[in-house]
Design a protein that fits this description.
Chain lengths: ~375, ~300
């Protein structure tokens, strides 16, 4: 086995332990390390404008949120159309601190890693509460529970004086060891922070799915009665899945608040929930790779659609608002087409490419 | 006291429209177990088609109301044929996600028309003076709307109780394999369920459009309020949808009549249905009239 750990042309596992390894071959690990090195090194070499850096940072934040949604929808089989509200819970946790202590309070600017974790925990608690009906119900009903949470969240922020009726609540610039992170380095700094969190949480998700705490999600999704017979409590497992999703969403929300240096109501609406769902579906539900690829694909699509709408808008001024029309249209089409023709998402293409190279020069 | 009765009357008006909106949703759920998230968009489409036929084409409003019902009937049927037919046999979770995608698509299409951003109102065709009775007033539009709603609900109830097609739809909802074995075409029944849902949605849209004016946001929110209504009524009960619709309408009217402005609360009518929904899901998940066979975890 040891000599073949560089190249694997098939499955030669002799124990479950070897099958559960994160990296099956040395080449896998090497490729991963190189990929990470590129991710960490490229901003030092290539100069990019703040505009593009913001897009890249947003993709990374969306990846964190989609980790959670993917655990919930992909692995536990519970649809959520309130994920943006969970992200909003994380962001508004910071806003609560900003409103009570002031946006430049030392807790927000110096102890921001702590704040990110706190936001994640608050998200987890709220997620668990929303998931409580799953103690009694099967997944179909939980769609409606998440939808109603989305509506309650929107109402709560919109009519609450404390949160300024959903207007932007400013959050100060954070401090690093070198001092205050200035305007020029802002997106650059957060790129590294978010990247590190993405990598840590990615490993966390991967390890979770190797352990019984993650496999129970899949077991309950596939057959809840069998899972019950195996000694898992399906209801608690689902609540736990909601809490996990809430944690990831909360972390993403806190990062969103720091990145945009403020929390506004309009970033956590129903159509954002749908774009998170689109990200998870397009990337591939139930795969970790999907959570990484989906957000990138959808946000790049969004940029393309925006420029297309601008282009079309010049010619068809008589038609209604093309720019607002193209966004939902393209998202909906992407969701429907992927579900109809490639339900396993882009991750499946990645799998096919990989297996092609793994077996090369043979076909199968 | 007359304020109270005024609220009751407008609650019943709004509630009966909720019931009509929920009817189509229940129809689809009953036959195919699919939660149609895009129902509000179909309602909006029905309303906009009615308006377009009345104002842009120039047909009489009653005729265009009926015509839009027919158009939406075939529209919903083709939606089922194109998108959902090939998903029969797939896990129900992906079918629901397809309806979420459909919701987005129809949103996009409506934003492309002038209806996406602007407000329209139907031309008046009923007497403007409201009906007054013991200090309680009700506009003619509301009156006619409620009458149409109850007629439609009655027609649908008859359809399911007595007609062969309706009975076969109920059979499919009960057991697909058994109904296949006695010669019911299950895909056809699914198509028909979507089509009748489209028809009732168009009727609801037309009535809402006449009462509140045409605003995409309002019509769309009627599609979302359907969820609390059907959950409270029990997902697979038409009667439950009617009762819960009226309950929901009353609750909303009382909330906006008595709660708003006190204790710093505003817009409670928009949120109370969802809070009730969550509570009902926790404590009585099969709703008031739902069949108790819902599988527990």
């Amino acid at each position: 086995m040891s000599e073949s750990r560089w190249l694997a042309t098939g499955n030669f596992f002799t124990s479950y332990k070897t099958e559960q390894r994160i990296f099956l071959t040395h080449i896998d690990r090497l490729v991963f390390i190189c990929f990470l090195a590129v991710l960490f090194a490229w901003p030092l070499i290539i100069e990019v404008g703040n505009k593009y850096m913001l897009v890249i940072d947003s993709i990374l934040i969306a990846i964190i949120a989609v980790y959670g949604l993917n655990l919930l929808t992909g692995f536990a089989g519970l649809i959520s159309i309130g994920h943006a509200a969970f992200v909003g819970v994380g962001a508004y946790t910071l806003a609560t601190f900003a409103r009570t202590l002031g946006g430049d309070h030392i807790l927000l600017t110096h102890y921001w890693p702590l704040m990110i974790i706190v936001a994640g925990l608050v998200g987890a608690v709220i997620g668990g509460i929303v998931g409580l009906p799953s103690l009694r119900l099967k997944h179909l009903y939980l769609v409606i529970a998440t939808l109603s949470f989305q509506m309650i969240f929107q109402w709560f922020i919109n009519f609450s004086k404390f949160y300024d009726q959903g207007q932007t609540i400013a959050i100060g610039r954070v401090f690093w060891f070198t001092g205050k992170v200035g305007r020029r380095d802002h997106y650059f700094f957060w790129y590294y922070v978010i990247l590190v969190i993405v990598v840590i949480l990615g490993f966390a998700v991967r390890n979770l799915l190797r352990s019984k705490h993650g496999r129970c999600l899949v077991a309950v999704r596939d057959n809840d009665r069998a899972a019950d017979a195996m000694g898992m409590h399906p209801g608690f497992t689902k609540v736990y899945a909601f809490a996990l999703a809430g944690f990831f969403a909360g972390v993403a929300g806190a990062l969103h608040a720091y990145l945009w240096r403020g929390v506004g109501f309009e970033s956590f609406l129903l159509h954002h929930s749908i774009s998170y769902l689109a990200m998870a579906i397009v990337g591939g539900l139930g795969t970790l790779v999907g959570a990484l690829v989906g957000p990138a694909a959808i946000l790049i699509l969004e940029l393309q659609v925006e420029s297309l709408a601008e282009f079309v808008g010049h010619y068809f001024t008589a038609v209604g608002d093309v720019a607002t029309a193209f966004r939902p249209l393209s998202f909906g089409l992407v969701i429907v087409l992927f579900l109809m023709f490639e339900p396993r998402g882009i991750a499946n293409w990645w799998r096919m490419v990989r297996s092609y190279f793994k077996l090369w020069p043979f076909r199968y | 006291m007359s304020y109270f009765f005024q609220l009751v009357v407008s609650g019943i008006v709004v509630g009966s429209i909720y019931a009509l909106s929920a009817l189509g949703f229940v129809l689809i759920y009953k036959s195919s177990r699919v939660l149609n998230i895009a129902h509000g968009q179909i309602i909006a489409a029905g309303a906009f088609i009615t308006y377009a036929l009345t104002v842009f084409v120039g047909i009489h409003i009653v005729l265009s109301f009926l015509l839009s019902m027919v158009i939406t009937f075939f529209l919903a049927m083709s939606v089922e044929r194109v998108f959902l037919r090939r998903l029969i046999g797939e896990p129900i979770i992906s079918v629901i996600m397809v309806t979420i995608g459909l919701m987005s698509i129809i949103d996009g299409i409506i934003y492309m028309t002038p209806f996406g951003a602007e407000n329209f109102s139907f031309p008046e065709f009923l007497p403007k003076t409201p009906i007054s009775f013991m200090g309680i007033s009700m506009s003619w539009t509301q009156m006619v709307g409620v009458l149409i709603t109850f007629t439609m609900i009655g027609a649908f109830t008859w359809f399911f109780k007595a007609s062969t097609v309706g009975i076969s739809m109920r059979a499919v909802s009960d057991d697909q394999f058994a109904s296949m074995s006695i010669g019911i075409s299950v895909p056809k029944v699914f198509g028909l369920a979507w089509a009748t849902a489209g028809l009732s949605a168009a009727a609801a849209g037309g009535i809402i459009g006449n009462i509140t004016g045409l605003n995409f946001y309002v019509l769309h929110s009627f599609g979302i309020i359907v969820f609390p209504v059907v959950i409270v009524g029990g997902l697979d009960s038409i009667f439950g949808a009617i009762v819960a619709g009226i309950i929901m309408g009353l609750i909303q009217q009382f909330a906006s009549g008595y709660l708003d402005g006190h204790w710093g609360l505003y817009g409670t009518a928009d949120v109370l249905p969802y809070i009730i929904l969550l509570i009902i899901l926790l404590f009585k998940p099969h709703g008031l009239f739902g069949i108790h066979e819902i599988e527990r975890v």
